[in-house]
Amino acid sequence: MDLGLLIILGGSAALSLGGGWVCISRWSRIRHLQDTPTSRIRSAAQGYVELVGILRPLGDVPLIAPLSGELCLWWRYRIEEYRSNGKRSSWSVVERGVSEGWLRLADATGECLIDPRGAEVRPAFRRVWSGSLRHPRGMPLRGLRGLLGIGRRYRYCEERLHADEPLYAIGDFRTTGGGRQGLDLATARKQVISEWKGEYAGLLQRFDSNGDGQLDEAEWRRVRLAAGLEAEERHRHASTGPAQHRLARPTERLPFVLSSHGEEVLARRYRWQALGGALMCLAGALLLSAKLA
C-alpha cells in the first residue's frame, strides 16, 4: 500500500470520526437545552438550570472593549494578519483575547452572578473590519518601523455583551446565604482544620496541652471538636446573610451556554451543525469504503 493511499484512508477516517463527533455532541446539546425547563432565579433548584433575564452592570468600574473602546459587560476579540508567501496567502491569527469578569443577570424575582469562564458565549453583537495597524486603536508608526509596516493588512473581529440586553444562560446554579444551603459538617470541618494547619504554630499554642511540640490523639480529638464548632458557627453566620445566586461551568460534561439569542435560535443552529457533522461522517465513510473496495 503506497503512502498516498494511506494518507487518503487516514483523512477519510478522520473526516468520518470528526463528523460523527460533531453530530453526536450537537444533538446532545439540543437535548439538554430542550429538556431543561426555564427557572426563576429566586426559586431555582440547586444544580443544572436554565435562566432567562436581562444583563445589568456589575460595579461602578466600566468595562471597555479593547479594539473599539466601547463600553460593554463582556468582550471577545481576534486580530488576524494577511500573509502572502508566493502562491499561498491566508489570514493568520496574531492576537486574541476574552474578558473573564463576572456578569449580573436579573429577572423579575432576583439576580444571579455568572462566571463566564469556560462558557460557550454567543453574543448578538459581532463586528468585523479591517485596517493597516496591528491594533485598530494604536497610533501609526513613524520612521523605519512605519515604512516596514506599509502594505500590511489586518482584520479585526470583536464580539460584545451590553447592559440591558436579554441573556439566555444554562449552567450550574448554586445559592449561598439566605438559610438555603445545608451544612456538610465533615467537609466543613476538614476545611477549617486545613486552614488551621497553615498556621501550625498557632495550632500548637491552642491545643498542645503537654507542651511537647506535637499533637497526640487526645489533642487531635480536641482539634476536631473545635473545628466542628467553628464550622457550624461559620455556617450560621453565612445563613443569616442575604441569598447570593451564582451560575458557573458544571463539573459534569454538560453544556454551559450564554447567549443573546433564545433557546429556539440556539437549537436551530445546533441542528444545522449536527446535519453538517452527519454529512461529513457520511462523506468520509463513502470515501473510505470506495478506496478499500
Automatic annotation (TrEMBL):
<protein>
    <submittedName>
        <fullName>E3 ubiquitin ligase family protein</fullName>
    </submittedName>
</protein>
<feature type="domain" description="EF-hand">
    <location>
        <begin position="195"/>
        <end position="230"/>
    </location>
</feature>
<dbReference type="InterPro" id="IPR018247">
    <property type="entry name" value="EF_Hand_1_Ca_BS"/>
</dbReference>
<dbReference type="GO" id="GO:0005509">
    <property type="term" value="F:calcium ion binding"/>
</dbReference>
<dbReference type="InterPro" id="IPR002048">
    <property type="entry name" value="EF_hand_dom"/>
</dbReference>
